[in-house]
Description:
This protein has 2 domains: 5-177 and 341-371, Medium-chain alcohol dehydrogenases, catalytic domain (Quinone Oxidoreductase, Chain A, domain 1), CATH 3.90.180.10; 182-319, 3-Layer(aba) Sandwich (Rossmann fold), CATH 3.40.50. It is built from 12 helices and 16 strands. The strands form 3 sheets. Strands 3, 5, 6, 7, 8, 15 and 16 form a 7-stranded mixed beta sheet that branches. Strands 11-10-9-12-13-14 form a 6-stranded parallel beta sheet, sandwiched between helices. Helix 5 packs across helix 6 (209-220). The radius of gyration is 21 Å and the shape is globular. It has 372 residues and is an alpha/beta fold. It has helices at residues 5-12, 71-78, 127-130, 172-175, 178-192, 209-220, 232-241, 254-261, 279-284, 307-312, 325-336, 352-360; strands spanning 32-40, 43-50, 59-69, 89-90, 95-102, 114-117, 155-159, 163-165, 200-203, 224-229, 245-248, 267-272, 286-294, 316-319, 343-348, 367-371.
Amino acid sequence: MTVDCETYDLLVGDGGPVAPVNCLQNPEIRADMRALTLVADRKLELAELPAPPAPGAGELQVRVKAVGLNHLDLWGYRGMAFAKRKLPLVVGAEAAGVVAAIGAGVTSLAPGDPVVMYGALTCGTCKACREGRDNLCENIGGIMGFHVDGFARDVITMPERLVIKAPAGIAMRDLACAPIAFATVEHMLFDNAKLRPGELILIHAAGSGIGSAAIKMAKAIGCTVITTVGDEAKAEKARALGADHVVNYRTDRFEHVVRKITTKKGVDVVFEHTGAETFNGSLLSLKRGGRLVTCGATSGPSITFNLMQLFQQQYKIFGSFGASIENIRTVLAKMAGGLLPVIDTEVALADLERGLARIESRQVFGKVVVNF
């Protein structure tokens, strides 16, 4: 069927396939698009930008339907970029949408397909990229929404290799949590920490997007989960997710509770992402030969720890950043099987700042998603 742009937007809002009219390339239908831009530290503006030209060979255009927010977005908003960037910058590092148009030679996707996008501009040709280790690309062009223009816009043009088809029937708000939040957890737990069924794991910050996802993924393979929270309301939500033991870090030293629960043996794996405030306690929570995997430092990046403890206890520490495209495919399959993210708040594009404030307040439990 052929539909007008307004009807098309309604039909693809839930990811359902339709045969779209070419809204993007007809200036009489749509000559510009919305984009949320960072113009200064802690200052966002909703701008009108020209719609992109028709996709070139090997490219496609995606109509963005939802953006997932992460601490990465908050760091960029605060001005804590890891590298030089130019403002104004279109924000948004994690997104889902629907293919609106394809260029010559594109064979893996078609207009109407629900998709998610890989948020790093990898080269696709270095040894790491050829081996499927995309997050170790040797010639990365930047992280979208952080170093270069990101996904918080109506339409974006992407290389075919950085766009992943999603299974039908998954809500856009859930798909928008796959490329960073879910895939990061997949990479941490299963590529790096090698979490196995039946193991005991300590997961920090149950209320975070990745903490809540880690609980669900660990429980899905039969692990025993100990997790930390900052208040009783979050404790109840963590238990509802399946956490076996919940520690309020404001009233108890989590490492002491872990040692008590495990009769001083410690856990097999610690899922770390909070940083300086918890890192040494996390090491003390490990059993001999235990594995710690970390992807964040929200409470601070610098620590001092005991090297003798490290080698005598034979700990294994893994740094983990981002995920591979294959990790994204894996978590999309898990979503199709019913393992879905915890959504805390949904906001409109113009209210993205409110979503960031929600994360910054630390009152969040799950993900904040921006709907278009």
